[in-house]
Structure formats: C-alpha cells, structure tokens
Amino acid sequence: MDRGKLQWHPAFSAALRISLQDEMQYLEMREEYLLSKKPPQIDVLIIRKLRDVPLKKSISRIFRGHNIIEYKAPDDYLSINDFYKVYGYACFYQSNTERVKEIDPEELTITFACSHYPGKMLKHLSEVRGIHTECREKGIYYLTGDPIPMQLLITRELAQKENYWLQNLRSDLKAGPEIRNLMAAYEKNRHSKDHEAVMNLITHANMEQMEVEKKMCDALRELFADELKEADEKGRAAGMELAKRVFNLSFQGKSEENIAEQCEITVEQVKKILEQIEGEKKTCDALRELFADELKEADEKGRAAGMELAKRVFNLSFQGKSEEDIAEQCEITVEQVKKILE
C-alpha cells in the first residue's frame, strides 16, 4: 500500500479513544467536526460531559468543556500556519453559536498531536506571541502564556504504559521485540473495533518490517519444528495424565483442596478440570440419548456382521485353507484371522 494514501486520522481517533477509554464515559468525541456546513473541519472535538468528574489521564488533564485536537500524520509536520489555522478554528467554534458565550471561551483547550518536534513553530510562538513550551512529562508539552490552554503531544515520545497505541501509531517500527510486543498487545484486544482500526493502519504503514518479522517467525518455527512438536506432545500427555489423576481422586471422594495438594496445582485448576470432564460427560450422554436408536441398530448390525465373518473364517479353516488365504478372501489381516480362530 502507498504510505501517502494511508488514512492516519481515523486510526489516531481510535488510538485516542483507547488511551482515554477509562474516561470516555465522561467525554463525547466527535471526529472531523464541521465548523460550518462546508469545510473547514476540526480533526477531533472532545466535549466534556461531566465537569465535576476529574480526568486523570496524562493527555486529558488539561481538558475543559470543549477540547479541539489537531493531528499530523508521521510524515507530516506542524507549521506556523497550522498553529494559526487551528487557533482560528477554536475561535470560530466558540463564536459560531446562536447565543453570546453559549460556549464559554474559558472552556476551550487546544491539543496539537504530531510525531516530530515542531521547533520552528515553537520558536515563533516564543518570540512573537510570548507563548513558552513547558515539558510536563514524556511527550507532553504545555504551551503557556495564552488565554486558551494548549498542549503539544509528540506521540512517539509518550509513555507506553498509558498511551501505548498512540505511541505506536507510526511508520518506523522495527522487526523483533517491538513488533512482537505490538502483536501480543493486539491479541489481547483483537475484538475491539478501535484496536482493530489502529492495528490495520500500523500494519500497512510498517508492511516491510511486518514481513521481515513474519519470515523470522516462520524460520524459527521451521528450525524448532521437532522440538515444538515434541513439547506439544509432552504437554498433551502430561495434561491427560493430570486430568485422569484429578478425576480418580474425585471419584474416591477426595475434596478439591485435597486433590489440589496431592496434584500440586491450585483449587481453581482442579475445579476447571472437573468442570471440563463433567461437561464432556454430559455431552457424551446427550449424544448417546440423541442417537440411541442409531447406536442400537449399528450395534446389532455390527454383531451380525461379526458373526457372519467368524462363520466364514471357520468354514474356510475347516476346508484346510491357510491363515494367509483366509485373510485375503475375507479382506482382513492375518492377525484378525488368528484372533477369530483362537
């Protein structure tokens, strides 16, 4: 996929929702919010629904009632013009209402999010407008000295623990631990639409390194194929042996605590094994009941066929045929012939 055509903004909104997921019940997010019936539009508008509920996320502490967010893709940068454009959007958003001060100017904030530190823009703001940059924590800078509270997020610098998906929303991931950790994090949240949207974008933006990682994993699987197979077989055998032991102890009337102690596992594991065994037993009982007539008929047919086969084997043996000849004529093995004649 051509990186120039990647849709970074929807993925940014999804990653933003993930970072703020603990607080989204108190926030309302509107993407590509139209300032009028025609463009221009705001990348993301977040409206605070409950003013008395404190926001504790590092990127949301600055939020007030109406929060305007401008996002730049990894291959783009924040310019001086971008600052004035977004600042103008904020002013227009506040004024484009039916009543005077319907949106209190003191309830506005602006957030700029990008991958690269906008040195020229910040220098201009300092020299011309007296707006200074204050680093609050990793990747979060407050722009102080203006009536409207503003912050700058350098997404690649954000702390991973709280903003993992925003931090990884870039096109320079490396094969190895970085991508493997990303895949593991996604696996835990694969049923989330926001996680899926972010992961799809990251995958396309880092396709080459994703392919490198895939080849490395395939090579490792091939290299350790025998060891993995052996480990899997050992694990299955050990699991079956453990389940058998748990069932036997339970059948003997032992308590779950006693079984756990003897098998050196937790009580929760004992309960899980017994639940699985009971579930399989109920399934088997239900299937037997469901197919009772068919099983009875199959059993009767099997008995009849077995008796007919035995009769034929004895007749051929009585005629002096060898075991090999009988096996060939009856289309069974020599071992089966011997077993019938025994």
Described by the principal axes of the CA atoms, the overall outline is: elongated
SS field, number of helical segments: 13
- How much helix, percentage-wise, in residues? 55-70%
Task: Return the domain count.
Answer: 3
Strand arrangement within the widest β-sheet reads 1-2-3-4-7-6-5
Amino- and carboxy-terminal Cα gap? 72 Å
User: Uncertain regions: pLDDT < 50 for 5+ in a row?
Assistant: none
Order of helices and strands: HEEEHEHEEEHHHHHHHHHH
Task: Please tell me about this protein's structure.
The chain folds into 3 domains: 3-170, Trna Endonuclease, Chain: A, domain 1; 228-290; 300-341. It is built from 13 helices and 7 strands. It has helices at residues 8-19, 80-95, 119-129, 160-167, 177-188, 193-205, 207-223, 225-251, 256-263, 267-290, 292-318, 323-330, 334-341, and strands at residues 27-34, 41-48, 66-71, 108-114, 132-137, 140-144, 150-154. Strands 1-2-3-4-7-6-5 form a 7-stranded mixed sheet, sandwiched between helices. Strand 6 (140-144) and strand 7 (150-154) form a beta hairpin. The termini are far apart.
Short structural description:
With 342 residues, this protein is α/β, with parallel strands linked by helices.
Topology:
Layout: H1 8-19, E1 27-34, E2 41-48, E3 66-71, H2 80-95, E4 108-114, H3 119-129, E5 132-137, E6 140-144, E7 150-154, H4 160-167, H5 177-188, H6 193-205, H7 207-223, H8 225-251, H9 256-263, H10 267-290, H11 292-318, H12 323-330, H13 334-341
Parallel strand pairs: 3-4, 4-7
Antiparallel strand pairs: 1-2, 2-3, 5-6, 6-7
Helix pairs in contact: 1-4, 1-6, 8-9, 8-10, 9-10, 11-12, 12-13
